[in-house]
Fold each of these.
Amino acid sequence: MWPLSRKQKTSAVPGVRCQGVLVQWDSSGERWEFTVGGIDYAVHQNPIFDTSLIAKLPLVSEWLTDLDSQIDEEIRRNLKGWCEWTGEKDLVAIDLSGLIERSEIDVSYAYDDWGDLGINVVIQDGKITGSYAGD
């Protein structure tokens, strides 16, 4: 027997701290994840985190504020035939994977009244380009 045993080292979760935000890699989901202002963000399938995303968060916030009534219309349209919408929605997470290359985000909404149905709204350059629902 070899006198020194080789123990497998546990790998630390890769992380980046940028402008006070801790961004961590989730290897099971193959995405970077972080939370700012109570909103969860993700960047999928890119092993290198682009720190310039943090500086673009105010723009994302502006888009969501400016488009709120149009987002409501997309939610209402996607819920038609599923349930009567009361006007309530919870922002679940924002996928920033396309923000740098295409100026595009994918915003996930849900609410208890909707059961397990989630609704995503795709925004590009401050305009809604699509929406979809899924469970």
Note: The chain has a mean pLDDT of 90.
Amino acid sequence: MKLIGEFPVAIDNKGRLRLPTALLRQLGEKPSEAEGYEFVLNRGFEKCLTLYPKPVWDNITAKLNRLNRFNDRNRMFFRSFYLGATPVVTDSADRILLQKQLMDYAGLNAEAILIAMDDRIEIWSPVQYEAMLSIDPNDFADLANDVMGGGDEGVGDTEE
């Protein structure tokens, strides 16, 4: 799954947001007309929410289940990662319901920005999103070099 795109969306007064058709097309066909797309909604690592397609969530949790739960740091990560995790399914109008505590965590009100990144979707408040984007271009270049430059943990050029 290689999701991409930035999508501004509205959140109604019940906490529902409609997933854009262009984004849903990237997910492939619905299991059936009677069923919606299945996701798990969770807190993001920053002040955003992360929407995981169910198969992606299942992959991640399979890895987490291999962690040694006798290790206190593993237990803390496990608890923190699962904090707020909620299964959601799109309704007939391709909407999902955002839980109030998750909306409060991410500072969401009437609008959101969806950022499709590879196998997951981040849901940002416009204010938090703008703050996150305020990185200086020179800082971004340094970050790109650190991550992609091939140093100790960077991936470097992967041309075949």
Note: The helical segments are 21-27, 54-64, 72-82, 100-106, 126-133, 137-148.
Amino acid sequence: MKILYQIAIIFGLCLLGEIMSALLSFPFPSAISAMILLSIALFSGILKIDHIKEKSDFLLSNMAFFFIPAGVKVIEHFDLIASFWWQFIVIAIASTIVVFLVTAATVTLLIKVEERGKRQ
């Protein structure tokens, strides 16, 4: 019964994210809306990590499974993509480098903030 409760919470937040995105006057991804709602619920204490821990751990450990439909769609439309494949490669490499740099800068900043907090 606990697993059904956790699934209901996660899917309920996804549904609320869909509703929020549909009500907005501009396009906004429903997954982002759901993550914002989840963050608000966790930070405000409305929702505890124990309420969703088991099911979220399961979903995270099986995340690769959820990329299969996207991969299949890429293969289905490969004839369209083949004409500008090199642009995909450039974008993938550039975005990977940007993500690495932003992550490194964020970690460095957080380490400095943490060290400063320890000294005071």
Note: DSSP finds six helices and no strands in the chain.
